[in-house]
Specification:
The structure is a single chain. It contains 5 helices and 4 strands, in the order αααααββββ. It is of the alpha+beta class. The protein has 2 domains: 79 residues, no CATH class; 53 residues, no CATH class. The protein has a 4-stranded antiparallel sheet. Helix 1 runs antiparallel to helix 2. The protein is elongated and about 60 Å long.
Length: 154
């Protein structure tokens, strides 16, 4: 596998290091703590993270963002900093690409009069958004894995 190269700004590095260090302080010495040490050292030195380290950093960042921990500790600015970093990681890029694809598909409705809009709860954290305009209908699935285009009827 290839190495992922991240260039972190000082603010991104500070928040990411703080989150890695918080988890490091909470876990006993183990293989996992050794992986966290390696991530800490790479971030601190500004060296590229390997694929395994990148996946683990994504997990930590995701947890920090979803739990509200980053916002509670560092405020909206810290949260935005970590969100910028997350969007540059593989999972964040994937979500951004998914959203861009749905946005492109929604273009079929551009300029049409909105006839109906509804949202349905499908399950925990999963929703379906249905839009109808100009004789076309689109269904978008929204959930923790991003936005995905469901059906398009023209």
């Amino acid at each position: 596998m290839s190495q992922v190269t991240l260039t972190l700004g000082a603010d991104e590095r500070d928040v990411a290091l703080a989150e890695v260090d918080a988890v490091r302080a909470a876990v006993p010495p183990s293989d996992y703590s050794a992986r966290l040490d390696a991530i800490h050292n790479a971030l601190e030195a500004g060296t590229p993270l390997g694929d395994d380290a990148t996946i683990e950093l994504e997990r930590l960042i995701t947890l920090a963002l979803q739990s509200g921990r980053v916002r509670a500790l560092y405020g909206p600015g810290g949260e935005q900093t970590l969100l910028r970093l997350y969007r540059r990681l593989p999972s964040g890029r994937e979500l951004s690409e998914s959203a861009a694809g749905v946005t492109e598909a929604l273009g079929v409705l551009r300029g049409a009069t909105l006839e109906s809009v509804s949202i349905s709860a499908v399950g925990p954290g999963a929703y379906t958004l249905t839009l109808a305009a100009g004789g076309a209908s689109l269904t978008v699935h929204l959930g923790r894995h991003g936005a995905r285009l469901g059906t398009v009827e023209a």
